Amino acid sequence: SGKELRLKQEFFFSSASVQNVVHEFSKLDKPWSEFPKYNCLQLNDTHPTLALVELFRILLDEKGLDYWEAYNVVQKTFNYTNHTVLPEALEKWGVDIFERLLPRHLEIIYLINFFFMEDVKKKFPNDWDRMGRLSIIEESWPKKLRMGNLCVVCSTKVNGVAKIHSGLLKTALFRDFYELWPEKFTNVTNGVTPRRWVHCAFPELSKLLTKYNGGRNDWLAEYDLLEEIPKKIKEDGTEKDFIEQYRKAKLAAKLRLKEWVKKHCNIDIDENFMFDIMVKRIHEYKRQFMDILYCIHRYLAIKRMSNDQKNKLNKKVSFFGGKAAPGYALAKNVIKLINMVANVVNNDPDVSPFYKVVFLPDYKVSAAQIIIPAADISEHISTAGLEASGTSCMKFVMTGSIIIGTHDGANIEIADEVGEDHIFFFGKKVDDVTRIREELRNGKRGYISGKLQECFDALYQNRFGETWFIHDYITGLANGGDYYLTCHDFDEYVATQDRIDVEYQNKDVWDRKCIENICHMGFFSSDRSIHDYANDIWGITPLEVPQPSIEKEKHFVSTSNLALQAQEN
Q1: pTM of this prediction exceeds 0.85
Q2: Which of 30, 58, 21, 52 is closest to 156 using CA atoms?
Q3: Phi/psi at 319 (nearest 5 deg)?
Q4: Which of 286, 380, 407, 422 is catalytic?
Q5: Alpha carbons 36 and 44: distance in angstroms, whole number
Q6: How far apart are alpha carbons 6 and 193 in whole angstroms?
């Protein structure tokens, strides 16, 4: 019943959108072959795939086009953005549910697949395995419709959302399609808007950047204008003053988060601690579990320290936030474990003056606007090859935090812009991940280090409460089930965190890096992303906006205003 509801929702919204577009085009009294000149529809993942089948149905059944006329219109109208290589975003629907709810749409999908398979047969004669992989129909039991394949077949362009991700679409996920239609595949790296994530979320930083941009806030629409600030403040001797004002701005952001945490979590946080923040969907590949294992490691290490050692320690708070999918039991267990570890750490008088752990509840955009600007370090530690892009990494760097992360998603392109020495990289790269997984399948063991085993033992011994719900999972990790390389990367992750503790002590160097990062994030403005879509995929050019005129006869009056005037008269 849940699947049926989901399919009904997807069809309802997709159909409504397409019918609206068709209705508006009909007013132009143009031939249907010109429909793509006036309309371009972007499929974000496979969830709205039914939109293209619905347009097909309208053109065939209501407008009287033949198959190839309809196909040409649909294929030139639609483009497909793939946002993740994970299976949950590549929908597969059972033929039985389509037969029951959308029988005509199923007929059209079969028709599309028939002509597509005929085309493949001509290009790759007798390559039945390739045909099986390319087919929109998965010949499993029960039969399924591969919506990702349907998107590629009926789109002009297919794009990933970061260079590494778009490369993986060509070499792995849609390799057969890339060999068939290499010209279809392109990349548009994601972006975020500085209007929300700097100007609204971090007003103190926005004012500072405007001040050092000659008092102009035009950087909000042209972020690249900030690039010269680090060089300029060095040359004119205002760098020290800029750093001081930046520190005050960052402190204001930390105080906002401190107040929020007190209100929502009833935990007191010292704003002078380093804020280490990881906020994103809870998922094995994003590796919140590795982060909480590190929290356990840090707790156990502090428990062993003398008072002198503790006083020299970099004081720190580790924040977690994010939601788990309703049926994702392990993700929910990780949230539970984080809260249990936090409860012990925060109530231990030997540790809590030097270290705290906080789970931030009900993570959403309004909370993110308080959380993100407060970060000193932000965690983007997914297993290499699995994070398509990620946008939180962009928001964090724009607001003055430094990334600890893997060579994955947008981390790589951020490093291209700000410099590798401005990011704390660790962990295996994509090629190594593939090799290590093969070794695990072949029975290679012995990758659990002493540090990691100590953390596992603490969980087995219930030092953080009754953590039985995670015991089977960690036993599986230790016995070859380390698919996401949580164990393989753990020691290097700990060593990188140790390096961060050392480098954070030199606040001048740290803050200078943060400022340089902020000012070199122009590539990650959503303005650039939309420009790339317009240029490379939609084929549209900018409209010149007319300058305002004081001459009354040159004023432009909208039709709604004309109607209002007529009503008044």
Answers
A1: yes
A2: 52
A3: -105, 140
A4: 286
A5: 18
A6: 30
> Active site includes 554?
no
Tokens of 296: 């356990």
Q: Please say if 552 is a catalytic residue.
A: no
Q: List CB contacts of 199: < 8 A, sequence separation 6 or more.
A: 206, 217, 220
Residue type, 87: P
The neighbour count for residue 303, using CB atoms within 10 Å, is: 12
Tokens standing for 16? 């409504």
Catalytic residue among 298, 316, 395, 513: 395
Per-residue pLDDT tens digits for 89-142:
789 999 999 999 999 999 999 999 999 999 999 999 999 999 999 999 999 999
Among residues 193, 383, 391, 467, which one is catalytic? Answer: 391
The one catalytic residue in 280, 297, 428, 520 is: 280
Residues 148, 380, 453: CA angle, nearest 5 degrees: 110
286 as an active site residue: the answer is: yes
User: pLDDT tens, 428-479?
Assistant: 999 999 999 999 999 988 899 999 999 999 999 999 999 999 999 999 999 9
Query: Distance between CA atoms of 134 and 181, rounded to whole angstroms?
Result: 12
φ and ψ at residue 410, rounded to 5 degrees? -75, -10
What are the helix and strand counts (H, E) for the chain?
A: 27, 13
Are 356 and 345 in contact by the 8 Å Cβ rule? The answer is yes
